[in-house]
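input
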Amino acid sequence: MEIRERLLHLQASPARVVQCPRGVSPLAVCPRMQQSADLLCARFARTIALGRSCYSTLGGTTIGAEEGRIVRGMFRFPEALERSAPVERWLNAQTGELGALARAWFAFIRQCGSDVRELMHDGHPTACVGDTAFVYVGVFKAHVNVGFFHGDALPDPTGLLQGTGKHMRHVKLIPGRAVDGSSIEALITAAYRDICARLKAEP
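output
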């Protein structure tokens, strides 16, 4: 099914945010979502042409530019590998203290379990349990983020997590600023176990 056709036939269901009568597309009752569909189609066309993966959210449903990328609740990346050359190149290209932080934390992430896989997603090294993402590392101008795809579900007794999105949260690491490393390790481990539990509970 073409991307636009997918967008134009989104139906309401308990797993989605937009509530409409069954059989009625959210786009039919919301002109702004109709405009969003047009914009998303253009974006998907560009990313497909470039051979890149692309995710956007419309009406609570995650839509991907590649076949099999419509998912509910979890980001799935079947192309994730045990070791990814693009991830390795990205990590090695990061310089200074920011690069050292990124490499150290991604190394810890890699050893969470034998089922950890990795890929580049949205320009950041992303770790998965099998094909399901649980954490990423990002380097920015003056800080490093360790980001969690289901951070809203993680215990955070020390209050490290930042972000106000529906699910995503991150820890901001700034060179020279003290941080409780054991708490970050606990968050990463909890994120790994959380995704393992979600996968085990799937029908």
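quick obs: Helices lie at 3-8, 26-29, 31-50, 85-93, 96-110, 181-201.
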